[in-house]
Amino acid sequence: EGPNGTLGTDGGEGNVVSWQASRYQCPTAETDTMRLAACSSRGCRLEVVFEGTWGTVCSQGFAEGNADILCKAFGFLGGGTTVRNFGKGSGKIWLEDVKCAADAGDVGDCAHEP
């Protein structure tokens, strides 16, 4: 249980509108195809799964506004912001140049380069 209530696996339970990053709690947000990982006081890394293997989304070409759209898709009603140069992830980079339309419900709905 976090300071704002219990956070569900999709980030939809608890008071996610007022969640603030801290060194004590990482937001739990995961769907079948995307998740937040390596959370810190700066933010979280977006990861995606392809053919059963998790990998990262490159920040190069990650359009402004994507974080807001995808955080809402996770259930964070207040959305989110893009953090540039968050740091290198582990594993394969599955997506780059991601650009999401306002109604995207998953990173797979967004235009991207493989």
Strand arrangement across the biggest beta sheet: 1-2-3-4-5
Strand count, sense and barrel status of the largest sheet are: 5 strands, mixed
- Apparent shape: globular
User: What class do helices, strands and sheet pairing give?
Assistant: mainly beta
Strand content: 15-25%
Arithmetic mean of pLDDT: 75
Q: Give the % helix.
A: under 10%
> If you compute it from the alpha carbons, what radius of gyration comes out, rounded to the nearest whole angstrom?
13 Å
By DSSP, the count of extended strands is 5
* Helix-strand pattern: EEEHEE
Structural summary, described in words:
With 114 residues, this protein is mainly beta. The chain is 8% helix and 22% strand. It has 1 helix and 5 strands, in the order βββαββ. The chain has one helix spanning 66-74, and strands at residues 34-37, 45-50, 53-57, 93-99, 111-113. It has a 5-stranded mixed beta sheet with strand order 1-2-3-4-5, with no helix packed on it. Helix 1 links the parallel strand 3 (53-57) and strand 4 (93-99). The radius of gyration is 13 Å and the shape is globular. 26% of the residues are buried.
Gist?
By secondary structure, the chain is mostly beta strands. The chain is 8% helix and 22% strand.
